[in-house]
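Supplementary material to the annual report.
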Amino acid sequence: MSELADLTLRQASKALRSGDVTSKELTNTCINRIEAVEPRIKAFLAQTFDLALKQADAADEVLTQWRKNGGDPPAQTCGVPIAVKDVLCTEGIPTTCGSRILEGFRPPYNATSVARLIDSGSVILGKTNTDEFAMGSSTENSAYGTTHNPWDLDRVPGGSSGGSAAAVAAHMSYAALGTDTGGSVRQPAAFCGVTGLKTSYGRVSRYGLIAYGSSLDTVGALARSAEDLVPVFQVIAGHDPKDSTSMPVSVPEIKLNTSDVSGLRIGVPGEYFIDGIQEEVETAVREAVDVFVSLGAEVKHISLPHTDLALPVYYLIAPAEASANLARYDAVRYGPRIESDELLEQYIQTRGALFGTEVKRRIMLGTFALSAGYYDAYYGQAQKVRTMIKDDFESAFKEVDLIACPVTPTTAFRIGEHGDDPLSMYLEDVFTLPANLAGVPGIAFPVGIDSAGLPIGIQLKAPHMGEELLFQAAHAYQQNTSYHRDSPNL
Amino acid sequence: MALTSEEVRQIASLARLKLTAEEEERYAEQLSAVLDYAARLSEVDTSKISPTASVLPLTAPLRNDVIVPCPPREKIMANAPRSDKGMFSVPPVLD
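Predicted assembly:
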């Protein structure tokens, strides 16, 4: 049955529709796979196998009825087992955000993105590990232990959607939901050799996404190819009245024309090719751009002049928003409580003890940046520079259709490598942060393997709401190369 | 921007976080490093730039003022660390 775990989502979906395989068989395959490799990977915080098998039975019923009676085909995600990052609410299923302060919390509702997948017939295998409250670039900040990169167990899977990336890379699920606030889908996708989509801000509802940085958070997905991501995107994307920041615009029906990228103008920004990038990463990224040229694309050198300001801007805005969003963790309505005689003591004791180090650091950074006397110089100034970064993209997209660049300065680093140096960890995000500040979508996919056997990813960024072009370009690349078909030996 | 342990204690108090003395010292060092790095923003001329609060051109969407079903109380109370007669129970606020 191991070949079933190695199917692409597309292949699985086709086999489900034809009746060659049942959702129950696929779900059991994933369950067996998880039992076999999960002890080494630690991608999951919660496993919901009983629920999954019930969902699989229901999906099998839908597929059988459709084969018998015809009508509109079920969604391509019907019957497909997927995993969900533990910052997304799943009704009745423990949702911790990788934090002790939400230990035992069972949401009373599903996040919209989750509900839409469930309604389409998807099977939920469980909740995946994450840096606490999505704050981190390695999944080492999870209060429940780190996840291990399936390509090298001594290395990180990236973060904060490290559990989701590892689950997909290790063939424990066919796709996984992730979230990207500063790179948290794209960076783990690159480190784990999978394809990850950061959606445009406003494209997928944030209802039920436990908030970190409300002007930056996006719900995205990871799978083993762009082609596999499309069905997931089609289901989760689209306006939601419950999220006042979700755009009331229609979602295109994505058509993946094969390899025709002739005339596509790809911009390569000089500011992203800095000293300090691992040489093999730069080489692989440039070679990938050459593949696009061989397929008919045109490459232009562009400038995104305020790129080097993205990091300080992000590390003022995101913590500021986080300090407000995490004020709700007061042990009043949910989560564990450190009992006290007095309410203020209850707050400070619970929050002091149950928030992790990085979370407390960012809350304090944000509190400082918003405090009286400092607001204008720090947060206010950061908001203005954010406009300049957003404008860089708008100008660039007048000259080019897509921007190509590295995802990370290096391949996956070792667990513990950054020690307790927050700034060195923050520098992992330099290439991904700008897209979140501008609100534009991005896709990361594998374009090579380095001499240590670790995957190298490239990133494409598109104008706001430009996911279709991202999918088409990534698919064209993947039709002509096979890096996305490499898998770790486990 | 160099923060002292005392300033960290004040920020922690605003953020309702109890820190150990060791944490106060460590965070003072780390936060100062991040703020020093962020200080490069002060060199940018933003005199003609308006701030971005949201990347979207949206204003607050409105809905009709009709009552819609809300979740049952038991569901909402199910996660309460302590409750009494269907209400969240908290210790008193003492001055």
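The radius of gyration of chain A is 21 Å.
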